[in-house]
Amino acid sequence: METFLIKAFQFMLSLSLLVLIHEFGHFIFARIFKVRVEKFYLFFDPWFSLFKFKPKNSETEYGVGWLPLGGYCKISGMIDESMDKEAMAQPPKPYEFRSKPAGQRLLIMVGGVLFNFLLALFIYSMILFTWGDTYMPLKNMKMGMDYSETFKNVGFKDGDILLKADTLTLDRFGEDCLRSVVEAQNVTVLRNGVETVIPIPDDMMQRLLRDKKGFAALRFPMVIKEVPEPNAPAALAGMQAGDSIVSVNGQATPTFSEVAACLADNKNQEIAVGFYRNGALDTLTMQVDSLGKIGVAVKAPAELFGLVTVKYGFFESFPAGIAKGIRTLKGYTNDMKYVFTKEGASSIGGFGSIGGLFPSIWDWELFWERTAWLSVILAFMNILPIPALDGGHVLFLLYEVITRRKPSDKFLEYAQMTGMFLLFALLLYANGNDIIRYFFQ
Questions:
Q1: How many CB atoms lie within 10 A of CB 313?
Q2: 343: which of 117, 210, 274, 390 fits an S-S bond (Cβ 3.0–4.6 Å)?
Q3: Percent residues over pLDDT 90 in the chain
């Protein structure tokens, strides 16, 4: 329960920040062009609000709604989710959105998307300034990867070390690496000291989404960091920090995952463990507990293989943060083509999936990393040319600029209702996927 609350709080804090910045983008451009903003709300407030106030001599009511599905900035003279038909039936007033030139209306509509993207660039820059860019180079991963069944089916083998995707040298493991691999025609790996080329099928991403087996996990030896419990099986048997387990019952177990599998197969059994200590091979016996554990803490891959951290000064962090934000946007834009496949549609997630992106323990670096990523996603999704989204309004404004003909209010009302219906259906579908995955997968 505590884990859920930590994840949920991070998600709500991140969402609230992104919504406020997005709506402030609309708000500030509206005020620049002297357009009246009637309401500025975090979350929606059908029937009632949790909190609201209107400063003296202000035209804007500020508040917090009870329905945490976003927020809104109600701009006078604009057909939006409020569907205020009565106000739109009145003659246009000078301070209304509809009375302003198309160029000004266009800037007001893109303001939210612009501020979300700028926020992401700023957060990425501050992450790099505060923590730097830390990663484990692929060349340091001397034992290679354990690959999923999906990737083994096209020719990968456990232990392969990734080198190149076509002509691109792969230097770090992560989303960019995965994208490069699945979209390449050929991937070069180092296998038993020999470079091997693996052809990649055109539908590799669809296979990955369909099978839901993942990509690969890092292979690393089981080196004991400490034996914390004096009565644990490993402590009673005499194992020490620094011991590296290499076999169980005579079966070679060069990696942590292989040791863990053997222990799981020998619950409540006595086993013989082969290990290296100070370069010498030795063997001892011990009892595995009912959970398939022996009571040791192991060294993480970062401790075994080493990390690289690139530090940035304050002014250096901004171009690096901008570059990272642009890479993130390009990657997500590229991934969108898979959404329109059967496999991609089934992988769409709702609030549960998004909340699951946050760590179960509070980590400011990861929190800001996820928030920046979501800010990029929010900017991209909102600029899509779908009625009810900012991109839908932008589409109609561009039509007006090009043709010099303004769509009728009645058309815009119907477009808004259609867009809201589509978004609501997508919301139900995405969260329905989360429910199905939680209960049936």
A1: 9
A2: 210
A3: 38
